[in-house]
Write a structure and sequence with these properties.
three-stranded mixed sheet; globular
Length: 333
């Protein structure tokens, strides 16, 4: 059992891509779920029954004490993946995590704490070999640095004894809007990459990530032990794009973008993002990450200690994702 029958499970970031899939799975398993959400957030992806809404915001430290009252398990999914300014990463990821942990301490909670971090917190592989969890951290972007500092907040917390850290790599699946841009390019037959060399990534379908989060909550020993949750074998971006293009009846061709041009495009996108006051998936921070060839990780620890193994093949995961995109008209049929 993940939690006591009379104790709700708190999910932060419940209305987002990963959070909504997690809530859906928990409700399906019969758990009561308390969803932390902003009052401005859309609730369209949340189940109609089996949930309790708690309005608040981790970065602003609003509504957190009420949200954590009486819970025995917290999935901290909320985080900032794109922002008009670098400060937004630290405010949302570091300060937000610290605020949530402090609220749990203030109510005297002994709740299990599952923290969703990222492979970006550790950084890319320097030599092409998939990273293990205990590899030295060398984040290369503000996003990665903020996720590492958020992990450090978990490790320093009095709640660390009951905490576990899950580090997903690239996550894709229904409801995702970030990798959608990649699929949209593939649907037109294009693969854009920085420089001429092939790049490799670890990936995970959102349903497998959710399974990994549940396994971590139930089986991890605590002490803020980190786990990579991913498909066992990394893939090249060319393979990823080619599978998607084939499923859409296309052939993909790679277009190499010189690094100075990519950097300039990221700078222009940042300016536009600041003027609009809305984050963009393209920024210099994302270009910093994309310069590296190997964003890959090992999965042995999650397999041996959590019993986790990704079930969806790359092709199955992409096919399911494309079908959903077409159904909601995010991609043309």
């Amino acid at each position: 059992m993940l939690a006591a029958a009379d104790s709700p499970i708190l999910v932060t970031g419940a209305t987002g891509f990963v959070g909504s899939h997690l809530v859906e799975r928990l409700v399906g398993l019969g758990y009561g779920v308390r969803c932390l959400a902003r009052r401005t957030s859309s609730l369209a992806w949340l189940p109609g029954e089996g949930i309790e809404l708690a309005y608040g915001e981790v970065a602003e430290n609003v509504g957190l004490r009420e949200a954590v009252e009486g819970v025995s398990l917290v999935f901290h999914v909320a985080g900032v993946t794109k922002t008009p300014s670098s400060e937004g990463y630290y405010r949302g990821n570091v300060q937000g995590t610290a605020n949530l942990l402090r609220a749990l301490e203030e109510v005297g909670s002994g709740a299990r704490f599952v923290h969703v971090s990222s492979l970006a917190a550790v950084g890319p592989s320097p030599d092409g070999r998939p990273l293990a969890e205990d590899a030295p951290a060398h984040p290369v972007s503000h996003y990665g640095k903020s996720k590492w500092e958020a992990e450090e907040a978990v490790r320093r917390s009095p709640l660390s004894a009951g905490a576990v850290i899950v580090r997903p790599p690239v996550v894709f699946g229904p409801r995702d809007r970030d990798v959608l841009k990649f699929f949209q390019a593939a649907s037109r037959g294009w693969l854009f990459r920085i420089g001429s060399q092939e790049a490799f990534v670890s990936v995970v379908h959102v349903s497998d990530l959710v399974a990994g989060l549940l396994a971590a909550a139930e089986r991890a020993p605590g002490q803020a032990r980190p786990y990579f949750v991913a498909n066992e074998e990394p893939v090249s971006w060319t393979e990823f794009a080619s599978v998607a293009a084939e499923l859409m009846g296309r052939q993909v061709r790679a277009v190499s973008i010189p690094r100075p041009m990519a950097w300039a495009a990221g700078f222009v996108a940042e300016l536009g993002s600041k003027l609009r006051g809305k984050p963009s998936i393209l920024s210099r921070d994302k270009i910093r990450e994309a310069r590296y060839r190997y964003w890959t990780c090992q999965t042995a620890r999650a397999h041996h200690e959590l019993g986790f193994r990704a079930e969806k093949t790359l092709r199955q995961g992409i096919a399911e994702t494309l079908e959903w995109y077409r159904m909601v008209r995010w991609l043309r049929p």
